[in-house]
Write a structure and sequence with these properties.
Oligomer: homodimer
Shape of chain A: elongated
Strand content of chain A: under 5%
Radius of gyration of chain A: 22 Å
Number of domains of chain A: 2
Chain lengths: 243, 243
DNA sequence: CAGCTTATTGAGCAAGCGATAAATAAAAAT
DNA sequence: ATTTTTATTTATCGCTTGCTCAATAAGCTG
């Protein structure tokens, strides 16, 4: 079978790390020098998020400084080591973006289940399906940092397990207190979660063209998922109850 | 609201890049020196795949050589530059793993649609949901290489678009020649695809514990997806036909 | 203006990087 | 056994990297 043109032969690399979406000029063109301490620190962190998202943690401090319009040794006045700067990037990026109200939305039974799920996932996607969040999260995952494990454990315990409980209630299946949420069940929740996250991966990691507005896609995914869920869920709970 | 223990405060990094699954000893303990040219080249490529999967392309040639039980300059006897070695890694990892028969499986209408999808995705997952494939693919995506874009374009044109056509046929909807596959429709295919890929991301990138056998999970995902699909698909084609 | 504080810079070190060239030694050829 | 070939190593170059420290200059206080 002859190969057509769109195959993978002749693989070559491209030295173009995906540029950030908004071409914000390197932060300061004729940067006003001698800023107050707090202001400078803030700018460094913001610039570092942008920079590390683009280049990864192996990005060099000299180039980061160049983008910030400052010299490299100044970075070390504000952060004793590069690792300390990276830690601050994590703080600003992950810890601050978690919304405890999400858990309440999911459990709010005054709303139908699809509305709750759509509300949560649209807001969640708006929070984390961004250039900086997605790329830094993946860079840190590949580097083997434990933040990813911790963050996803949070997602599992605070979101997915609760979703499973609400589905049980919605479809008239045994309460989790009577029959604990099983692994296969939880994997269904991970599947929907992965489908939504993969939107961001396609766009921000692989640079693929993706519909600009994620919301209708998320709603469609949830519709399909919920329409197909009860059959499988009933089968799974039957299996588990039988043991 | 007081924070519980499993939150994200006190983020710290961990200097442990996720180790490969099978602790294959560094390739050669008391390595028989002076290998024939082909054999040595083969070992270098295999070792490089393992090494770059773990450390990324910024992994140093000296450490790669150390794992291979050879000295660093010897690498440059076989590959003129580090980039040339990386290109060979791509060839071995991506080009060789594409199975043209997959496209035939999907279009084989002598089998029911769920059987076809499960057969393809289980085989596809067995091929690419591996430590080396997933990690190198993500490293190269983050680095901005064009392989990812090319590979996923292949997936879209050779797999997902065809799946959409088969769904149309399955549910008695207009043929793609009469009404072309729409964007929203294709996004549903990406959703299922993403749900399955995300299994590998969770495990090999983030180091999360995931059920060992992916097959039953993939089957469940497809069952839920197919059960929920016809309603949404009918609505989408109605919308498109109305324009 | 003088004097003090401190944000910022210029110069540079030690270690690590990809890559090179000549020297060595193991296998093959004569 | 001697020569030829070549897989492999030793030593090193030029450059980059994270990081340091003394010098500079901008702003505040009197």
């Amino acid at each position: 079978m002859p190969r057509s043109k769109d195959d993978l032969s002749g693989l070559r690399r491209k030295a173009a790390p995906m540029p950030p979406p908004e071409g914000m000029p390197p932060c300061e063109p004729g940067a006003a020098r001698r800023l107050p301490k707090d202001e400078r620190e803030k700018r460094i962190i913001e610039g570092a998020i942008q920079f590390f998202a683009e280049r990864g943690f192996e990005g060099q401090t000299r180039e980061l400084a160049k983008r910030l319009g400052i010299t490299q040794p100044l970075l070390y006045r504000y952060f004793p080591t590069k690792d300390d700067l990276i830690d601050r990037v994590y703080q600003d990026l992950y810890v601050k973006r978690w919304q405890p109200v999400w858990e309440e939305w999911i459990l709010d039974r005054s709303q139908p289940i699809d509305r709750r799920m759509k509300r949560f996932y649209k807001d969640y996607a708006a929070s984390i399906l961004t250039y900086e969040w997605m790329r830094i999260f993946l860079y840190s995952g590949l580097a083997g940092f434990d933040i990813n494990n911790r963050y996803l454990t949070l997602i599992r315990d605070r979101v997915l397990v609760k979703l499973c409980g609400e589905w049980r209630h919605e479809f008239g299946l045994p309460d989790p207190t009577a029959l604990p949420i099983g692994e296969a069940e939880l994997e269904l929740a991970w599947a929907l979660h992965g489908a939504i996250i993969y939107l961001g991966i396609r766009h921000f990691i692989y640079g693929l063209k993706v519909p600009r507005n994620f919301d209708p896609l998320i709603e469609a995914d949830i519709d399909v998922f919920l329409a197909g869920l009860p059959g499988k869920l009933a089968a799974l709970t039957r299996e588990m109850a039988a043991e």
